[in-house]
Amino acid sequence: LRVACKWLVELKWFDRYILGCILLSCVSLAYENPGISDVSPTGLALRDIDLFLNSSFILECVCKIISLSFVVYMKSGWNKLDFLIVSTSILDMVLTAAFSGQNVDLSVLKIFRIFRILRALRPLRIIARARGLRILVSTILSATKPVLNTLGIAIVTFALFGILGMQLLSGKMWTCSDPLRFQKDDCRGIDEGGSPRKWVRADVHFDRIDQAIRSLFILATQDDWPEHMWAGIDATSSTTGAKQNHSLWLFIFYVFCILVAGYLVINIFVGVFVDCYNSVAAEMEEPLEEKLTMSRIPPIFDDPVNAVRCAVMQVVLTTSFDMFIAFFIVTNVLSMAFESFKQSQSQTDFGVVANYFFTFIFGWECLAKMYAFYPRRYFSANWNRFDFFIVFVSFAGIAIDELGTSVGLNPTVLRVLRVFRIFRILRAFRIFKALKGLQAIIATLGDSLPALMNLFSMLGLVFFIFAVLGVTQFGTLCDDNDVGKEGLKAVRCLFTDDDSLLDHHASFKTIFLGILTLFRVATGDAWGELLAAASVPGPNGVVLHIPVREKEWTDFTELLGYDPSSLDKDDPLYFTRWDGSSTAPPALEERSGLEAAYVQMTRISIQKWYEGVQGMDEDADWPFPESAPDAATWITIGRQVMPGCFTDEDVILFQQEGLVDCTTDDGYPLVCTGTCGNYWVSNIYFCAFVCIAAFVLLQLVIAVLMEQLNANEDEQSAKHMLMPGAETLRKDVFLRMFRRWRWNADRIDKFLNGPGSKRSSVAPSGAPSPAKKPQG
Predict the structure, then answer these.
(1) What distance lies between CA 742 and its chain's CA centroid?
(2) Which end of the chain is more exposed for a tag (fewer CB within 10 A), N or C?
(3) How confident is residue 263, by pLDDT bands cut at 50, 70 and 90?
């Protein structure tokens, strides 16, 4: 059995089969989202694919354990990762089969979510099969110890500044959502815009040490820091709102925090990581002498014998000719800059004439060089290939324009063919050819491509994994499009605060939107707003078991037309504002533990709202049509007593009562989920992504480019080093001399001893085969 398992896991096709399963798993993870019903065809297909993938991974894991033994198998870190993924997949399948078709408790569903979150780690298995990524990860892990030391310094620094911020601003950064209300006691009821007044806290505050450290991290990333600074300057006390420039001297604290935390600590962290990466990369790099000796020597071509070709060659190789062509390149770029949207006829005529002129100038340059050097020598240079491509597409664009005018091609075909005109913009890149410094940068980019591809692949893998995690954790959060859904589908997000609604362009509804949102986070574009929306209702959770305030109760009873607490206690409509509260007065203690008053008020608000707007889904001002003026008032009443979002328990309760509709667009049933975020999960998620993507991998791109630029400079200087004992003989010239001498020696040896002679020794690395002349 062990021999058979070893034979199986060592087969190339089996490894390719597992790699295909990993890629299929990535596609499956990318397609999943919370809006897919389990009983829909898509949901059933994804379930079957997941079962197939789990079976394949289990087979691989079992075969490797049998062939290697469990102890040897677990010595590899990648095998440990595989074992973790397979183990959680087995538990997921077992629990899914055990609770299938049963009324599952919410706590069990949350356990399912944890197991399914771990499926996002499956793409990491690609690293074990990609040598470049594996070396990159090993290099990153080798820098763990010094990075952890620097991370400890950063945390201590953040904690010290956080404690200082708590001393200055703890409990003060509160304000009323209505700017016309300054006192906390006055921040009740409904403002002039029809929204409920709420006593809210700034997103970046210093009320607790963990929140202070998080605030300093946001300031260190310089994410919208002026707004956060002014919020602190305007803060007054825990019972009064913001007052403009109340503590103007606090700008010193914020500026000092940004200077130390943002410019010093973060850059020290990045610098240490980049230095460790460069050190490990330098240890893995082969010596410069060996790399120069083993490198391929460019071919050497003889000058043309023909007098005319020689004369043309002498012209095109002069500096004056290069400057002449560079002048036309720059002039061509400037002429293309004259084009504009809805340009005048004179601009159009000028563009046509300029296009003809520069196309023929560059065409004659191409023909002159090709005539002087012969095509083989001409096309051996990459820049000449680039020039020829530009000239070809330029003439093709002119021919297509003339053909479309004279023949009268179909407009659709003509638009497709005119794509060649787009390539004219590539002429601007010819300016690199005229400047040696720009050529060095291009050469550095070209030499850095392998390392950069590994980094970008790793960055793409990180984006994909975090996007999958984001869809799993935050895919149910409401965006500004959800409140406009038809009928009862809009109810789920109607009670979410406007400030907590995500932008529909920056959400986690699908994997594509998730990746775009993470790119926004990586660039530091107001990612603190996403963090705040995903953290609702805050670090203390949803505080529900409190009595409804008297002001909200009065507004509710006036709009309802009667007081539910005045009804008979046996009446089903009877409830008080103390229901469900642990702080109920003694006279009502017997009602503690019953359904909370905020739930009953929200239920009535939904019913009254839907009674007024039913059938008005197509109105432009849905969900609050002008023909139903009380609709917005009822939802506002509900928002006053809600914590700013629906919990899982609340939304399932309302779904069972027919007050919330969560069916898909195809009509398949879907279990409603809450719209509340998670404070700790969101903070760990976003902060970890910013550290990995923005502070580590993107900075490594700069490190790789700098390292390659230095390496190219060292290589160029090494090529111009003198040979030992020589005064003028350079190493690169000596290598060319040796190459030509060796080719002549092999040719003489073949001539004297015949083609079957074995006296010829093996040519050194970098030299051509003796049977082939080295182009010179």
Answers:
(1) 54
(2) N
(3) confident
Provide the token pair at 47: 């379930």
Residue type, 354: A
DSSP codes joined into one string, 547-592 = PPPHHHHHHHHHHHTS-GGGS-TTSTT---TTTT-TT--GGGGGGT
CA distances from 628 to 616, 619, 634 (A): 9, 11, 11
CA distance 420 to 751: 53
Looking at residue 764, the DSSP 8-state letter turns out to be: P
- Per-residue pLDDT band for 409 (boundaries 50, 70, 90) equals low
Task: Give bridge partners of residue 240 from the DSSP assignment.
Answer: 183
- What length does the chain have? 776
480 Cβ contact list (under 8 Å, min separation 6)? 501, 502, 503, 504
Please tell me what DSSP assigns to residue 623. Answer: T
Largest CA distance in the chain: 124
Q: Which residues contact 87 (CB under 8 A, 6 or more apart)?
A: none
Q: What angle do CA 558, 187, 491 make, to 5 degrees?
A: 60
459's CB contacts (< 8 A; 6+ apart) are 693, 697, 698
229/248 Cα distance (integer angstroms): 10
CA distances from 47 to 27, 92, 329 (A): 13, 12, 59
Report residue 699's pLDDT band, with 50, 70 and 90 as the boundaries. confident
Q: Which of 106-115, 371-380, 468-477 has the lowest average pLDDT?
A: 106-115
- Which residues neighbour 280 within 8 Å (Cβ) at sequence distance 6 or greater? 139, 142, 143
Q: CA-CA distances (angstroms) from residue 72 to 64, 80, 145, 244, 743?
A: 10, 11, 26, 67, 53
Estimate to the nearest angstrom the gap between the alpha carbon of 2 and the chain centroid. Answer: 43
Which residues are bridge partners to 479 per DSSP? Answer: 502
Token digits for 707?
């390292």
726-to-107, 288, 291, 739 alpha-carbon distances in Å: 81, 20, 22, 19
Two tokens, residue 237: 């006390």
105: left (phi over 0), alpha (psi -120 to 50) or beta: beta
| Helix, strand, or coil (residue 339) | coil
Contacts of 37 (CB under 8 A, 6+ apart): 43, 663, 664, 666, 668, 669, 670
The answer to whether the CB of 90 falls within 8 A of the CB of 54 is yes
Distance between first and last Cα of the chain:
62
* Residues paired with residue 175 on neighbouring β-strands, in sequence order: 200
pLDDT in tens, 505-541: 889 999 999 999 999 898 888 888 889 888 877 554 4
Distant-in-sequence, close-in-space partners of 226: CB < 8 Å, separation ≥ 6? none
